[in-house]
Every structure is written in structure tokens, then in C-alpha cells.
């Protein structure tokens, strides 16, 4: 009596599973297992293929050239920053000197050196350079106006005292 009889289980397959084993003449369970194994194998192959395609030599060459270009640009920027820092130190030293003529000469030299550096490295586009020059001119004009208004105010105060 302890003998167990195999039970006939009936499993109803959904539309996807039915489509996977459609046209199969084998046992439906074995056909479904085989279809699942085929799908898993296809997924693994597709994953390997997509990983292989992502690292294709043409793609890597493009990335390498972009990295080299960015490295060159970074080196030029570092050089530019270093030179401008030197010019700032030079200008600070000129401001600490006592003669006005040497200050003007140092300022002219520093401005010329910075302009030459920018022109040679082509880091700033002409449009950007024109915009920066106009902003600098506007700033200098504003300073001149403030200085003039300050001196006019001092003259008024002196006249009021008299």
C-alpha cells in the first residue's frame, strides 16, 4: 500500500510558453525546458556580443583622440594660468615700487605678454576676447567716473568750507 502512483498533473501554459513550444512533437515539459535553456543561452550570447561591441577598436580610437585633445588643452590652460600668475606677481611688485614710470612700463609689458600668450595658445576665441575687452573698458570707465565724482565732491566740500 505504500506504493505511490505517479500523479498526472495538468499544467495550463500561458501564451508565451505555448508560443515557445509550438510545433514541438516531444514531451511538452521537455520542450518547455529546452526552450527556456535556449532563451537563457541567447541572452548570455547577446550580453557578450553587446559587451564586445562596446569596446570596438574604432570607438576606442575616437575616445583616445578626444582624451589626447583634452590633455593638450589642459596643458595649454595650465601654462596660461602659470604665466598669468607670474604677470600678477609682476604687477603687484610694480605697485610696490616708488616710480610711476616703471609701473607704467611694467604694466605695458605684462599686458603685452598676456595678450601674446592668449593669441599663441588660442584658448580664448576672438568673440570672447572682444567681449572681455569691452567689459574691461566699461569697468575702467566706471572707475574713472567714480574717481572724478570723488574729486568733484572734494572740491565742493572745499568750496563749502571757504
What does this structure look like?
The protein is mostly helical. 81% of the residues lie in helices and 0% in strands. The chain has helices spanning 15-20, 28-54, 57-96, 100-121, 126-161. It is elongated. The mean pLDDT is 76.
Largest sheet: none
Parts with pLDDT < 50 across at least 5 consecutive residues: none
Number of helical regions: 5
Gross morphology is elongated
Provide mean pLDDT, rounded: 76
Taking Cα atoms only, what radius of gyration do you get, to the nearest Å?
40 Å
Quaternary structure annotation = single chain
Number of DSSP E strands:
0
Cα separation of the termini: 133 Å
The fraction of residues in strands falls at: under 5%
Order of helices and strands: HHHHH
- What portion of residues is helical? over 70%
Structural class given helices, strands, pairing?
mainly alpha
List keywords for this structure.
mainly alpha
Give the topology.
Layout: H1 15-20, H2 28-54, H3 57-96, H4 100-121, H5 126-161
Structure, briefly:
With about 160 residues, the chain is an all-alpha fold. It has five helices and no strands.
